[in-house]
Structures are given as C-alpha cells and as structure tokens.
Amino acid sequence: MKRQLTQREIDAVFQGSSDARPESENATTSFDFSRLDRIPKSQLRAIHLLHEDFVRSLSSNLSAYLRAFAGLNLVSLEQISYSEYLEGLATPTCLAYISLKPYDGTAVMEISPSIVFTLVELLLGGNAKEPPEIQRKITDIEKGIMQGVLRIVLNELHEAWKNVADIRFAVQLLASEPQLLHVLAPTEAVVVITVDVRVGPATGVLNLAIPSIFIKRLRHKFDQLRQVRKSDPTDRDRANVARLIGSATLDFEARLEPTRVLAADLIDLEVGDVLMLGHPLDRPVTGTLNGEPIYNGHMIVKEDKFLLQVYQVSPISTTERFIRPPAA
C-alpha cells in the first residue's frame, strides 16, 4: 500500500540532506574576470629568443633597403592588458593593425613618429641629418610610403615565426589615434615586444602587441620546437668550418714533466752550467694547442734545433676538438 509523506517528514528529509552536505561544496571562491591569462615562462623565453632573431635580421635588411644605418635592439617582453598597452602609446603615432592568417586575431604594431618621418625622408631621397621635430598625424601619402617598410618588417617577422607556425602577417589598416579603433577588449592580455630603433639621427621604439590567446593556441607548436634537437654537423659542414679557421693562430707548446729545483741552485746558476731535468729521453712529451693536450711525441734534435716528433694524436681530431661545442 502506497503511503504519502507528511509535510513534516518531507521537511526532515531536506533538512537532513542539507546538514549532511560538506562545507566545501558550499564554499565560494572569488574570481577576477579582468585577470591576465598568463603564459608559461618557458614559452615566453622561446618567444624572446624568436624575436631576438627577428631583430638581428631586420636590422641588416632594413639598413640595406634604406641605404642607411638602422640599429635595432630588443629591450623587453612582457604580458600586460591591452588597455595598459594603449595607455603607453603616444598620440598621435603610427599604428599598424596586423592580421595573423590563417589564425583569427589581430596584432597591433606601433612605430614612433620620429622614426616614421625619418624613414619617409630617407625614402624620398633626403639625407636625414637631423632628427625630425614634427608633431602631427601621418598623411595618406606617408602611409603609402610606409607600406614598403612594413612589408620588410612583416616578412622578417614571418621568417622568425616560421619554425613555430606558418603565419602570414599582413597590414589591415594604418592609423594615427590609438583610441579610435577597438580591435581587442581592454582587459584582454597581450604580449608586448619592445624594440629600440635608431635610424640615422632619430631614435624611437617599435612596439608589437600580440594577443596572449593567440600565443596560447600555439603552445603545442612551441613544445614541439623545444623537442627538436640540432642534428650533428655533416662532413661538409666540418670541412667548411675547418677552411674558415685555417688561417687562425693557435698557441702550441711541448710540455716536459715538471722538475723540482733547489732555490740555491737557481741562485748560483751561471752561463754554461747544465740544469738536470727530471724528464727521461724515452718518456713521451705532450703537445698542447691553446692549453688542450692534443699530441704525444718525443723531443729530437735536427740541424741544431729541438723538434717534437709526433707519434700519437688524440682520438678526437684537432679540427673536431676546436669546432665542436663540449657535450652537455
């Protein structure tokens, strides 16, 4: 026979289940939705090394393109929010919004106006002997001139990133006011790469902000990159290095076994005296290059000169010893 529960019995059941629930299930934890989505330090180090290569390559190629010295130096790499990045930009400035095809997302690159106007002057045939003192927005004509420079910058960026992923960087838009376009949410985390730039007499910075979410999507690519080991050099590589260092000079020494001599004997030593050394003639003599023992041989006399006659070479060849880095 079915029996219905009374209201008191129902209340008792719910009261008991509530009392039995652990406190941990009722506990709440505050969450800050504006916090940065941090990238591991190991991945940041890889990004830093990647952009060091980018800066070195861009410096040489930009100098060739401008036919003037262009010096670049990687200053910092940090994670901040996009709003903090915008607050640090000058107004007006030169902003390039860059697509990251085939991936979704937009990177933002800022180039200091002093650098932009110097580049424009050089590309128009000027000598740029003095740093420009211009405080205005760049014109449409100047934007067109800067497209050539940006193609070189983005091509070098592509070359630097290609070991991680094949990213086609392309300029979507050039702007002057950082607050007019909102391509990223203010609280979104970005990785900012800051590069000091010197072109002729002008100095400035190049700031590149890449969304952290984009970099996190490529985490497995960075993991694969760390697992790649550099292959051993080929015989051709070693022969080429040996040819390049062929004209280098090395310090060669033939070392005899050390001998103890009394101080009194050294004080009384005169021209014509014979100093007895404790190295028998039949004992091998070690030949060293830059302090590294390489050869074993015997001392011989030929045409009134002391020579080292080599009869044994170290198992590791001389060339290999000096061009191969020590094992980890």
Describe the overall structure.
The protein is of the alpha+beta class. It has two domains: 41-227, 3-Layer(aba) Sandwich (Chemotaxis protein chec); 245-263 and 275-323, Surface presentation of antigens (SPOA), CATH 2.30.330.10. It is 36% helix and 26% strand. The strands form two sheets. It has a six-stranded antiparallel beta sheet with strand order 1-5-6-3-2-4. The chain has a four-stranded antiparallel beta sheet with strand order 7-8-9-10, with no helix packed on it. Helix 5 packs across helix 6 (140-161). The model is unreliable at 20-25 and 322-328 (pLDDT under 50).
How would you sum up this structure in a few lines?
With 328 residues, the chain is an alpha+beta fold. The protein has helices at residues 7-20, 23-26, 41-66, 82-87, 113-123, 140-161, 212-217, 219-227, 235-244, 263-267, 318-323, and strands at residues 70-81, 94-101, 106-111, 168-175, 189-199, 202-211, 252-255, 285-289, 292-302, 305-313.
